[in-house]
C-alpha cells in the first residue's frame, strides 16, 4: 500500500512541476472525453432510454408496407393490429393510436387540443404510470362508451392548476362531456406533443377482413421477456403468407407487395435525429482520436526529456516495471481528472446540445445524468489513457537496457525513431482534422443545395394556419363545412394586402403529410399481377392554387361551380400524368377512388409539389379533389399577402372567429418557416460539425505546437551553431516552418484520401452530398495551413531568438 501511495505522490509532484504540460493534457483529454460523453448523453436520451418509457428495448413499432407501390413504411389497419396481438408467445401487449384534435372552451376562449385516440393498453405497452388517477380499462375502450380522458401533465397544470381533484371532473371536448380518469407524468410524451388521450373505441366490425388495407393507425407492441424483433417479424411474415393464401393468387396483397414488419420503437421515436446523431458520434470519436494522438505525442516528448531522470533512477536500482508503472500512474491520473471533468460536464453539455436541436425534433427527450452515462465516460477515459499512455510506456521499456547515466547529458536528443513516431501522430491529427473540416464543408454545400430545391410552390409571402371543426357541429354536414370555409375565405380576401386565400386538407411540409390511396382509371383494366395505380390525395378550394402559386400546365383549376351538386372533378399533377398517360392528354379522362365511388373527370394538370422534404421526393404523384365535393372536418388555410405574413396572424384568427366563434385557428406559421424547418436536422448537423471542426483544428494546432516546441528545444545546440556560423533569424524561422509544412502536407495528403472515401459513404446516407467537394477541400487545406502557421510561429520565433554563445556554453 505504501508503494502505491508513494507512486501516486511522486506522480503528483512530477505533474505539478510540469504544470503547463499537465494543464494542456487535462484540457485536451477533457475536451475529447467530454465531447463524446455529451453526444452519448443525447444518444442515450433519444435512442437508448427515451424519457417516460420502461425498458424501451422491449417496445417495437409495427408497420405495413407495399413494395410495388413505393410505400416502404406506413401505418397499420385494425386487422393488421389484431394479427400482431394474437402472437401471444411473442407479444405481451399491443396498442394502436389515431391522432386527432378537439376544440375545448377554456377560460372564456376556444382552445385547440391535440389528442391521441388509443386502445386501452397504450400506456401498458410503454410501462407509463399516471401521476394521478389511473389508465384506461378494457370496458372503456368500446364503441359509444369511450367518454374518458387522460390529461397530459402540462394540460393538467393549465386547466386545473395541478389540483389532484381534477380526477373525476368533466371537460367539454367538441361539446361532448369526457370524464378525467388520470394525469400522466410530465416525462411521458408519446405520441409527441399530445395534450390528452381518449379511448379509441373501435367496433368489432372494424376488425373485419375487408378493412385489411385501410391503414389509418400507428401501432406499438411490447415484446415478452426473451422475445426479439426478429422473431416477431418471422411470425408476421407467416401471417402475411396466410393472408395471401386466403385471398388467392393474383390478389391485391400479392401484386402490391404487401407485408407487415416491426422494428425497434426507438428508431421511430428518434425520427430525423437518428442519422445526425450517429454522424456526430462518429465525429466525436475522431475528436477523441485526435486528442489521444495529441496527448500521446506530448507524453512521448516529455518521456524523452526525462531520460536523465530515468537514467539516474536506473542507476539507483529502479526496475523496468517500476519505471513503466510510474508512467502508467501519471497517465491514469491525468485521464482520471479529465474523465471526472467530463462526467460533471457531460450531462450539462448534452442538455445544451438538446436545446440546440429544434423543438419539433427534440420534443419528448430528456438528458439525465445516470450510472450508464458515468460508465460510458469512464470507458472513454480508460480507452484514452490506454491509447495515450501506451507509447511512452513502450518507449521506456525498450530503452531500459540503454539507460546509462553517462549516455544522457544535457545535449541529448531524441532518437530518430521516436521523433518519427511523434511526427506520425501529428500527421494523423492533421489528416483527421482535414477530414472533419472538409466534411463540414460538404454538409454546408449540401445545405445550400437543398435550400434552393424547387418545392413546386412559392412559400415566401404565405401565412398558413389550421382549423379542426367541432365534430358535433360539422361532421356529416358537408354544406355547413363549405359555408364555413367560404365565409373565412371571403373575409380574408377583403383584407388589405391579401392577394389570395385558399384551403387544403393536407398542407405541404405540414405535420400531417398527404394521405395516399389506390385509385382506378376508366377504360384501363388491370393486367395480371398489376396492383393498380396509387397516389397521394388531397382536397382543395378554388383559391388554393393561386395562394400557393402552383403552376397550371393544362386545363383549369377548381372554380366556385365545382360544388357537391355538380359533376365530380379532379386535378392531377404532372408526375401522375406522365406515369399513367404518357404522351397523352389526360384532360377529360376519369378516375375514382374505388368501386363504390363516383367517377371524377380530370379537368387540369398542375406542377408537382413536394410533400414534406427537400431531401427526398417520393414522387408518387398527387390527385386534387374539390373540397366542396369532399368536405372534411379539418383544413389548412393559406393566405398570400403583399405584407409580412406574420402581420396577418390576428387577421386570420379574427376571420375564423367571425365565421364561427366556437372555432379556433392553430399552428399559425409563415409557410416559408415550415419549409425551412424540414432542414432542421441538416442545419443542426452543419452547426455541430462546424464546432467539432473548429475543435479538431485547435487540437491539431496544439499537436503541431507541442512537437515543434520540443524539437526546437532539442535542436538548441544545432541552431546555436548555425547562428554562430552566420545564419540569419529568417533562415532559422524558415527551418522550423519547413518542418511544420512537411507535416501539414503529409497530413493533408492522407486527409484527401480519407475525404474521398468519406464522400462515397456519405452520398449513400445523405442527400445532396455529390457537389461542393472542391470547395470543401480548399476550405480544409486553407484552414489547416493557417492553424499550422499560427501554431508554428511561437516555436519558430523562440528558436530564432536563441543566443548562440549561451546555447554553446550550456552544451
Mean pLDDT: 82
The number of helical elements comes to: 25
The total strand number stands at 23
Output the radius of gyration.
Answer: 34 Å
Into which percentage range does the β-strand content fall? 15-25%
Between the first and last Cα atoms, what is the distance in angstroms?
42 Å
Gist of the model:
The chain has 811 residues and is of the alpha+beta class. It is 50% helix and 17% strand. The protein has 25 helices and 23 strands.
What is the topology?
Blueprint: H1 2-17, H2 19-48, E1 59-66, E2 71-74, H3 78-85, E3 91-106, E4 109-118, H4 122-126, E5 130-133, E6 148-151, H5 153-160, E7 170-173, E8 176-184, E9 196-199, E10 218-223, H6 229-247, H7 252-255, E11 258-264, H8 265-270, H9 274-305, H10 307-315, H11 320-356, H12 359-362, H13 371-399, H14 416-451, E12 462-468, H15 471-474, H16 478-493, E13 498-504, E14 516-518, E15 520-521, E16 534-540, H17 544-548, E17 552-555, E18 569-573, H18 574-580, E19 590-592, E20 600-606, E21 622-626, E22 634-641, H19 649-659, E23 665-670, H20 671-677, H21 680-714, H22 716-724, H23 729-765, H24 773-800, H25 804-810
Parallel strand pairs: 4-9, 6-8, 16-21, 18-20
Antiparallel strand pairs: 1-2, 1-10, 1-11, 3-4, 3-10, 5-8, 6-9, 7-8, 12-22, 12-23, 13-22, 14-16, 15-19, 17-20, 18-21, 19-20
Helix pairs in contact: 1-11, 2-9, 2-11, 2-13, 9-13, 9-14, 9-21, 11-13, 14-21, 14-23, 14-24, 16-19, 21-24, 22-25, 23-24
Transmembrane segments: 21-47, 277-301, 332-353, 373-394, 424-444, 684-711, 732-757, 777-796
Family: Belongs to the ABC-4 integral membrane protein family.
InterPro entries: ABC3_permease_C (IPR003838), ADOP (IPR017800), MacB_PCD (IPR025857), Macrolide_Exporter_MacB (IPR050250)
Amino acid at each position: 500500500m505504501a508503494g502505491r501511495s508513494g507512486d501516486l505522490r511522486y506522480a503528483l509532484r512530477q505533474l505539478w512541476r510540469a504544470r503547463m504540460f499537465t494543464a494542456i493534457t487535462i484540457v485536451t483529454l477533457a475536451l475529447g472525453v467530454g465531447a463524446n460523453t455529451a453526444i452519448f448523453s443525447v444518444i442515450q436520451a433519444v435512442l437508448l432510454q427515451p424519457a417516460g418509457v420502461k425498458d424501451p428495448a422491449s417496445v417495437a413499432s409495427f408497420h405495413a408496407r407495399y413494395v410495388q407501390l413505393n410505400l416502404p413504411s406506413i401505418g397499420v389497419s385494425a386487422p393488421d393490429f389484431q394479427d400482431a396481438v394474437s402472437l401471444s408467445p411473442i407479444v405481451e401487449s399491443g396498442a394502436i393510436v389515431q391522432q386527432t384534435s378537439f376544440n375545448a372552451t377554456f377560460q372564456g376562449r376556444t382552445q385547440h387540443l391535440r389528442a391521441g385516440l388509443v386502445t386501452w393498453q397504450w400506456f401498458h405497452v410503454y410501462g407509463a404510470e399516471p401521476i394521478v388517477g389511473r389508465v384506461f380499462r378494457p370496458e372503456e375502450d368500446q364503441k359509444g362508451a369511450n367518454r374518458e380522458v387522460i390529461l397530459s401533465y402540462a394540460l393538467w397544470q393549465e386547466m386545473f392548476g395541478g389540483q389532484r381533484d381534477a380526477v373525476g371532473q368533466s371537460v367539454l371536448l367538441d361539446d361532448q362531456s369526457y370524464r378525467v380518469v388520470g394525469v400522466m407524468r410530465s416525462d411521458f410524451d408519446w405520441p409527441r406533443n399530445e395534450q390528452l388521450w381518449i379511448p379509441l373505441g373501435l367496433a368489432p366490425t372494424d376488425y373485419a377482413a375487408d378493412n385489411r388495407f385501410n391503414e389509418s393507425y400507428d401501432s406499438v407492441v411490447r415484446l415478452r421477456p426473451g422475445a426479439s424483433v426478429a422473431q416477431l417479424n418471422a411470425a408476421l411474415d407467416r401471417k402475411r403468407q396466410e393472408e395471401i393464401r386466403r385471398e388467392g393468387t393474383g390478389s391485391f396483397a400479392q401484386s402490391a407487395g404487401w407485408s407487415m414488419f416491426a422494428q425497434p420503437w426507438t428508431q421511430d421515436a428518434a425520427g430525423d435525429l437518428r442519422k445526425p446523431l450517429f454522424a456526430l458520434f462518429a465525429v466525436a470519436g475522431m475528436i477523441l482520436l485526435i486528442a489521444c494522438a495529441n496527448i500521446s505525442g506530448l507524453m512521448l516528448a516529455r518521456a524523452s526529456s526525462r531520460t536523465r531522470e530515468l537514467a539516474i533512477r536506473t542507476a539507483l536500482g529502479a526496475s523496468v516495471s517500476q519505471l513503466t508503472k510510474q508512467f502508467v500512474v501519471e497517465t491514469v491520473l491525468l485521464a482520471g481528472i479529465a474523465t471526472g471533468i467530463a462526467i460533471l460536464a457531460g450531462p450539462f453539455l448534452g442538455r445544451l446540445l438538446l436545446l440546440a436541436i429544434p423543438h419539433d425534433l427534440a420534443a419528448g427527450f430528456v438528458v439525465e445524468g445516470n450510472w450508464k452515462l458515468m460508465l460510458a465516460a469512464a470507458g472513454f477515459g480508460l480507452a484514452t489513457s490506454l491509447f495515450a499512455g501506451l507509447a511512452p510506456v513502450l518507449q521506456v521499456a525498450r530503452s531500459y537496457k540503454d539507460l546509462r547515466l553517462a549516455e544522457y547529458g544535457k545535449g541529448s536528443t531524441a532518437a530518430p525513431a521516436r521523433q518519427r513516431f511523434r511526427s506520425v501522430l501529428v500527421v494523423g491529427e492533421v489528416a483527421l482534422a482535414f477530414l472533419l473540416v472538409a466534411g463540414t464543408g460538404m454538409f454546408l454545400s449540401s445545405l445550400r443545395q437543398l435550400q434552393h430545391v424547387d418545392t413546386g410552390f412559392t412559400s415566401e409571402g404565405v401565412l398558413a394556419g389550421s382549423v379542426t371543426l367541432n365534430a358535433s357541429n360539422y361532421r356529416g354536414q358537408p354544406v355547413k363545412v363549405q359555408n364555413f370555409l367560404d365565409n373565412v375565405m371571403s373575409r380574408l380576401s377583403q383584407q388589405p394586402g391579401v392577394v389570395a386565400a385558399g384551403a387544403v386538407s393536407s398542407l405541404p411540409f405540414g405535420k400531417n403529410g398527404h394521405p395516399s390511396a389506390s385509385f382506378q382509371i376508366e377504360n384501363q383494366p388491370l393486367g395480371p399481377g398489376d396492383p393498380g395505380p396509387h397516389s397521394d390525395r388531397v382536397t382543395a378550394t378554388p383559391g388554393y392554387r393561386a395562394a400557393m402559386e402552383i403552376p397550371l400546365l393544362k386545363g383549369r383549376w377548381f372554380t366556385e361551380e365545382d360544388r357537391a351538386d355538380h359533376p365530380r372533378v379532379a386535378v392531377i399533377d404532372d408526375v401522375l400524368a406522365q406515369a399513367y398517360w404518357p404522351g397523352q392528354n389526360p384532360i377529360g379522362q376519369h378516375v375514382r377512388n374505388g368501386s363504390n365511388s363516383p367517377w371524377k373527370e380530370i379537368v387540369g394538370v398542375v406542377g408537382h409539389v413536394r410533400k414534406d422534404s427537400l431531401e427526398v421526393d417520393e414522387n408518387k404523384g398527387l390527385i386534387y379533389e374539390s373540397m366542396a365535393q369532399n368536405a372534411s372536418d379539418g383544413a389548412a388555410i393559406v393566405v398570400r399577402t403583399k405584407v409580412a405574413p406574420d402581420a396577418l396572424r390576428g387577421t386570420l384568427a379574427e376571420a375564423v372567429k367571425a365565421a364561427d366563434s366556437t372555432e379556433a385557428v392553430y399552428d399559425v406559421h409563415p409557410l416559408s418557416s415550415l419549409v425551412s424547418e424540414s432542414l432542421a436536422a441538416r442545419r443542426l448537423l452543419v452547426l455541430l460539425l462546424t464546432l467539432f471542426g473548429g475543435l479538431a483544428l485547435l487540437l491539431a494546432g496544439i499537436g503541431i505546437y507541442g512537437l515543434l516546441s520540443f524539437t526546437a528545444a532539442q535542436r538548441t545546440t544545432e541552431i546555436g551553431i548555425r547562428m554562430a556560423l552566420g545564419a540569419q533569424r529568417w533562415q532559422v524561422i524558415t527551418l522550423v516552418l519547413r518542418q511544420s509544412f512537411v507535416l501539414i502536407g503529409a497530413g493533408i495528403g492522407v486527409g484527401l484520401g480519407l475525404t474521398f472515401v468519406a464522400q462515397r459513404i456519405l452520398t449513400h446516407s445523405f442527400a445532396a452530398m455529390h457537389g461542393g467537394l472542391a470547395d470543401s477541400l480548399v476550405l480544409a487545406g486553407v484552414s489547416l495551413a493557417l492553424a499550422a502557421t499560427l501554431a508554428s510561429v511561437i516555436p519558430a520565433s523562440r528558436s530564432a531568438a536563441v543566443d548562440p554563445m549561451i546555447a554553446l556554453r550550456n552544451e
